[in-house]
Amino acid sequence: MTQTTAAVPAGSRVDQHDLRRTNLGLVLRWLRDHGPRSRATLAAEVGMTRSTVSSLVGELSDRGLVRIGNEQRGTVGRPGLAIELDGRTVCGIGAEVNVNHVSTLALDLSGRVLAEHKLALDAHDVPVEDVLDRLAGLVRHTIADLQSQAITPVGLTVGIAGLVDRVNEVLTHGPNLDWRDVPVGQLLRTTIGNDIPIVIDNEGNLAAIAEATPGDADRQDILVIFGEIGVGGGIVAGGRLLRGRQGYAGEFGHITVQPGGRACGCGRRGCWETVCGLGALLELAADPDDPVRNPASALDDRLTELNRRADRGDERTVEALTAVGQWVGVGAAMLTNVLNPAAIVLSGYFAAVGHHMQQEIETQLAAGVLAPDAGGTRVEFSRLGFGAAVRGGALSALETVFNDPTSVGPRSAEGAVLS
Predict the structure, then answer these.
(1) Quick one: pLDDT at residue 315?
(2) Which of 8, 23, 52, 125 has the fewest CB atoms within 10 Å, i.e. the most exposed one?
(3) Nearest C-alpha neighbor of 419 from the set 89, 140, 85, 189
(4) Domains of the chain and CATH, by start
């Protein structure tokens, strides 16, 4: 590489503080995306001198963001000490409001889970303020867990099912929650009673952020389809989340696949989620009084029971999964014709029972995509399941550190972060 500093356009008027901050962020992101590196390797890969990298690493270490690990071997010459992400003194918190639960998750820079809480509820039967109160209680509990470990949260990102006005922090329309024009950000700030920065986002977008693994070339052009009561998701192209003009991209569940079909919570008919959302599957698979259709029961347990029935060959369950799998494939083919992603990652409830649907999904994808071999698009299942959105929230909150490592103060002699 020929560059000698961070990627700052030639002739730009950037003062030394801004240049330093840019270079710190570049090094921190490089370690996140590519893993531990020696100073020499890091310098060669980012195009800086070794002395510059050593100085940057020293400052990042002082701020508790990197640490010196084991010797890096397998290179020519004397092995160097590997620099790796640390960040044990700071973290991001993700939170989620969904139809069946509220949850929180805290992650450090390396992706280590520091705290996690989840509460099952039926949001339809609980007033909006009470749902947000319960979420706020989980957030306060999470913050207390972190304080006991001397860890400082740098931000909270809340994912919510529906159309989100991120600028005004308002859920404008949540069809499956049956919420409209809810000032989520304002209500949470009042209830949490903490000065932690709060961002409100769509849960499907956050799930996509969690699935787009940094440094993994196969996960930089993906379509994430997140299924629960509704169906949503996110589009990642070149490693970047595509939000659309006003931030409403990813509402896949409301593409029309069956004109004049079943009524949807959005007020239209024939939406994709009416034939492949969780409600559609449960109606096909079980009678109304069956325990798997009881919204008061934990969703994980209900899906485990469906898998058990399918594994033993229960005819009704297998037929239901087959029918829904066909519809998933139909919609996936439509989206693939438009976007041609490297992979379609099925998340949420699809990840839990999708192995029973996979053959039908792939059959419909192959039949519905114009390009040969489905345009090279693979079908994958998330390993994060229902935790994708809340994990994406925590990762999103941590972006403030990667964008500006100087936002984290240096550590005191005792190891605490100085504000």
Answers:
(1) 96
(2) 125
(3) 89
(4) 16-85 (1.10.10.10), 90-207+389-405 (3.30.420.40), 217-383 (3.30.420.40)
The residues with which 90 forms a beta bridge, in sequence order, are: 152
Which residue type is seen at 52? T
Residue for token digits 């997140």?
Answer: 226
- Could you identify the residue written with the tokens 């002699």? 413
Share of the chain above pLDDT 90, in %: 68
Q: Where are the beta strands (DSSP E) in 216-331?
A: 222-227, 231-237, 240-242
pLDDT for residue 5: 45
Spell out the long-range contacts of 30-33 with Cβ–Cβ below 8 A and sequence spacing 24 or more. Answer: 31/66, 31/83, 31/84, 31/85, 32/85, 32/109, 32/214, 32/215, 32/402, 33/214, 33/215
DSSP conformation letters of 76-143: SSSPEEEEEE--TTEEEEEEEE-SSEEEEEEE-TT--EEEEEEEE--GGGS-HHHHHHHHHHHHHHHH
Backbone angles phi, psi at 47, to 5 degrees: 75, 35
User: Within 10 Å of residue 410's Cβ, how many Cβ atoms?
Assistant: 12
Identify the pLDDT of residue 81: 80
- Coil/strand/helix, residue 235: strand
- For residues 391 and 94, the answer to whether their CB atoms sit within 8 Å is yes
The whole-number average pLDDT for the span 76-93 is 80
- pLDDT tier, 125 (very low <50, low <70, confident <90, very high otherwise): confident
Cα(41)–Cα(373) distance, rounded to whole angstroms? 39
Residue 202's nearest CA partner among 221, 222, 175 is 175
pLDDT greater than 80 at residue 334: yes
* Residue labelled with tokens 């893993």: 35
For residue 6, the model assigns a pLDDT of: 47
> What pLDDT is attached to residue 412?
59
pTM assigned to the model: 0.84
pLDDT at 26: 94
